[in-house]
Each structure stands twice: as C-alpha cells, then as structure tokens.
Amino acid sequence: MMTALAGATLADVGVDAVALKPTEVDVRRASGLSVATLTIDYEGRDHVPEPETLADLDAGRDVRLTVPVRADGFDPHGDDRLLRSVPESVGLVAVAGNPAYLDARECRRAIAPRLRAVAGLADDPWVGTESVERVALAVGGTQYDLLSGTTEAEISALRSAGFEGDVAVYAPLVLTDDEDTILDALGPYAGRRPDVRKRLPAETPTDSRATGSAREALLDGLGEYALAGNVETISERVDRLREAGVDHVVAYPARGLDPFLD
Predict the structure, then answer these.
(1) Could you report the per-residue pLDDT of 129-151, keeping only the tens digit for each?
(2) Over the range 39-76, which residues count as b (16 or more CB within 10 Å of their CB) and which as e?
(3) How far apart are CA 258 and CA 262, in angstroms?
(4) Are residues 152 and 200 in the same domain?
(5) Among 189, 250, 244, 243, which residue's Cα sits nearest to residue 221?
(6) Interval 47-89: pLDDT, tens
(7) What crossing angle do the helices spanning 212-225 and 179-191 adopt, rounded to 10°?
(8) Number of domains in the chain
(9) 214 shares a domain with 127
(10) DSSP character for 26?
(11) Which of 11, 61, 118, 129 is deepest in the core (most CB within 10 A)?
(12) CA distance 100 to 145
C-alpha cells in the first residue's frame, strides 16, 4: 500500500521552484504552492497561458515562461507575437525547444543567435542547457540543467573552473516511499534515458508491472534522473546538489499539484 507521507511539503525536501505543464494542470492553482519560483513549460502554442494568467501568478513570486526560441510565436528573428505578449514582470527561460513541439521547418532554425537574442530581452534570463550546453554557457544567464547521475560532478567542475553565475536543475518529483507508485508516475521517463533503455529487455513494461532486472534498472535510473522517494531520500539528494553549487532546484510534480497545495 502507498504511503502518502501526509503533510510533507516542497520546503521539507529543499525544493524552491516548481515546473508546471499546462496540459496537465491548471497553472492558476499553483498560486497555492509554497515556493518562490514557478516555471511554465512549453507544450505547444495552444497551451501557452494567457498574459493575464501569467501576471496573476506573478504576484509575490518569480514566474518564468519557457520560450522555445525556434518556435513560431517566440522566434526573435521572425514571428515573435507570443513573445511580445509576455508581461514585463514575467521572467524568461530561453530554450532550444523540444523537437516534439516543433515542425521540421522550425527545427532547422539556428539556435545560438536566437538564444542570445531572447536572453538579451530579460534582466535575469535562464538558459536551458539540454543538447546545447556550450552554447548556453556562452549565452550566459542562469544555466538551467536537467538532472542526471553526473549533475553534481559537472556542476562542481563548473564551479571549480570559476563559473559564478546561478545554476538551476530540473527534476521530476514523486514524494512517496511506494515503488509501484514511483514507477507508474516516472518509470516511462526513466525508460527513455539511453543508459537505462539499454539495460531493459525488449518490449518490457516500464511502469509498476516491471519485474526483476528491468525493475531494478528503472529504479536505479530514477535514482539518477528524478527526485523520487521519501522525504529523507529526496532531501539528501537536494542537499548534495546544493553542496555541488546548484542554486535552484526546480521540481516537476509528476503526480500533480494536490499533494503540495497548502
């Protein structure tokens, strides 16, 4: 049976920011979360929150909209109508953009000059590093990284090399000590990581139906790519990230907002 860990909060595990997926949650409900920062993921033009919604969320906290710099509507070198509609008080997270939300024409657009242009529009930009790590570092701003098993070593090396800017790390979050619940929420996510996928037998389920070595591989992967487990497990991982030099831990609540609303 699942242990609910009733009463545990984002603050208990050291998370200071939450990533919202507008296709999964009503982003307006995030006003009840006890975190300093909200980031809103991009899942296609049809799901970008209205400017009024962004402005309402921005009251009393840092709200940031993900800007896929190659996508029509957000392209600083072309169609930028959605970019121009973002309220001035809302921060920007400039990213290359997931190809799943881009057409072939958009995918062919040059990333580096567009990242630089969008970052130049913000006083305190965040820049997504996924697949464009060197470009993101050259652009500057807060480096927004995806959690992996090498994150701590990479950030430590970055700090040792003299990088003094902020670093934010994005990670899916499931706060429970029940393995089946964790796998149902995040097993497919782990199964898409190349180093985990190669350990899985062909056509094996990646949710709570997984057994044996496949189950072990998925859970091991989630130990690297996600914040999953009880309060102690997650808070220890967050502490290690902080010690390595991470400034912001951005959690995507994979089971929705309800467990964390005040």
Answers:
(1) 999 999 999 999 999 999 999 99
(2) bbbbbeeeebbeeebbbebbeeebbbbbbbbbbbbbbb
(3) 9
(4) no
(5) 189
(6) 999 999 999 998 778 999 999 999 999 999 999 999 999 999 9
(7) 80
(8) 2
(9) no
(10) -
(11) 118
(12) 19
